[in-house]
Amino acid sequence: MEMVKKRRSGEIALGFFLLCHPGPVFFHLLAVALIALLAVWPHVIWGVFALVVAAHTAMQLSIAVLNDYCDRNLDARGKPDKPIPRGLVLPREALIFGLLLIVLMFLLLLPLKPLALLISLLYLALGQGYNLGLKSTPLSGIVFALAIPLIPVYAFVGMGRMTPVVFWLVPVAALLGVALNLANSLPDIEADAAHKARTLAVVLGIRGSFIACPLLILLSVLFIGLLTATHIVAAQPWVIVPTLLLACFAVSMMILFSGPRKPVATRKPYFYLVVLTCLVLAGGWLIGALV
Q1: φ and ψ of 255, to 5 deg
Q2: How many domains does the chain have?
Q3: What residues contact residue 128 under an 8 Å CB cut-off, 6+ apart?
């Protein structure tokens, strides 16, 4: 408590910055921005685009902040470098900040279509359900499988356009969502197991998670390739083929540079490589289908 009383403004600012999980939130922001632009390019209404991206960012920040609030006691034992255990941010400050971000999300969504608000509320419910206990169960993978497909649907609805390719993107996004969940859990899998958390990654084990993660990405590659080859989804081969080859190359890099026998320090870069691969795969497919 003494440390909390002596907080400096710079330490408080650093605490709130870390509380926002800037890395993962940035990738969510990038994903929704990319998809929103692709949805209506080149006829972009920039005011609507700004609202779509800002509202989703506020929601992701609220989920990130309240995740640390809900995990504060567990983090005090296993991750003392987190901003709340370090005393950089007080628990009540994190709670108020997270709730205010939800209010901000609502305000930013009001000018958009009601369906965009409904989709965001569903995503928010999944995210906060994850924070409130689903994170420590095998259902954590299901949460990601349900939530990630909502991102492209939200982006298209928010920008005022819908196209059949979005519905085909949903099963791909679900597969990639489970891969993201596993990759996100790998850096903490030993600590989660030690604290009796039954995340999907813990249930599968380190080896099983490292097998399942690239396999899910390759299944997505195969699905996109089949839809393109059979012309179920009309797409430009000159875009799709390099995209699929790049995704396969990324998977080979994942297997080469990280794995159950590699140092734990390689798992965080592994997660970011999985995120980038998912963005390239989904973004490349949308470009190929919409141009």
Answers
A1: -65, -35
A2: 2
A3: 63, 66
